[in-house]
Amino acid sequence: MANVIGESPAWVNILNEVTALSHAPSTVTVLLSGETGTGKEVIARAIHETSDRAGRPFIAINCAAIPDDLLESVLFGHEKGAFTGAYAKSPGKFEQAEGGTILLDEIGEMSLPLQAKLLRVLQEKQVDRVGGREPVPVDVRIIAATHRDLQQKVIDRAFREDLYYRLNIYPIELPALRLRKEDIPSLADHAAESLVKRGYPKVRFAADAMEAMMAYDWPGNVRELMNMVERVAVQSAQDKREETRAIHLPTNLTKVVAQNAKAPCSERMDFPARLPDGKSLPEYLMDIEREIIASTMHETGRNMSGSARLLGIPRTTLIARVKTLNAFEHNQDNAA
């Protein structure tokens, strides 16, 4: 799992889930959820590489990137003459992944008719090629990924309930980068080292640059961080820069950080300048998060949807954080 970078408590929880799956049968279906850019494909590859399917194909398909009328043929294959332009038989991605793993990214964008056909694959372990007469058996582990709230889509009748429960056998909620900021230095260094292998100069961040990066919330998550490091590397090559300072960072990042720094004191929480005795920074940050979640849930009467809305996070993320942080118990202790 060389590309699975991070040692924060939130990320260690994810690594523990991957380890648990490595000891389970590799037929277990996994549903990865989380904001865009949180590393769902990285975790899907880690699940594959730590299973007994390692060494067999791993195929990732972005369901949102392929027109719906073509996606069926891409996934399940087609026979010669099945449609205009089908000059030869073509196996789909499920057949190509035989013995391995297929990642269905952005599964929430799949149309209802295609969802029904995917459900059949999950139930029968076989695919029907477009224009085919006989089903083709397949042995493939399915990992689905989404940044959508699939439970809400089920309620809205935009996603099949039976398919949701078939996919949701082992759910994993990936944390946003703002919830694991301790990992930013190691992620940035990993990105810089990867770029060196591609011929870029080594990017070194000065203390003020790293401070700004730690203060930024990264709405695009790890993907945004990786793209930023590459942009800095391009500029460093041009300027022959040995060290990247805060003034060299993208203006959208430094602008947001500066705006937050200028916010009135009443808009900022009052935290001590030093850590409490016996507390590490990750432990203290988890205490703060636990307090905020517990307070918000008390305010909404433990209404998950209302609390998630106030906190500005998906409902599924809130459920995962409550479980990780034991926020319910904390709320009860405060009320006692």
From TrEMBL:
For this UniProt record, give its keywords in alphabetical order, as a comma-separated list.
ATP-binding, DNA-binding, Nucleotide-binding, Transcription, Transcription regulation
Q: Which residues form the Sigma-54 factor interaction domain?
A: 4-234
State any single GO MF term. ATP binding
Pfam families (alphabetical):
AAA_lid_14, HTH_8, Sigma54_activat
Return the SUPFAM superfamilies for the record. Homeodomain-like (SSF46689), P-loop containing nucleoside triphosphate hydrolases (SSF52540)
Biological process (GO) annotations?
regulation of DNA-templated transcription
**What is the name listed in the Swiss-Prot or TrEMBL entry for this protein?**
Fused DNA-binding response regulator in two-component regulatory system with ZraS: response regulator sigma54 interaction protein
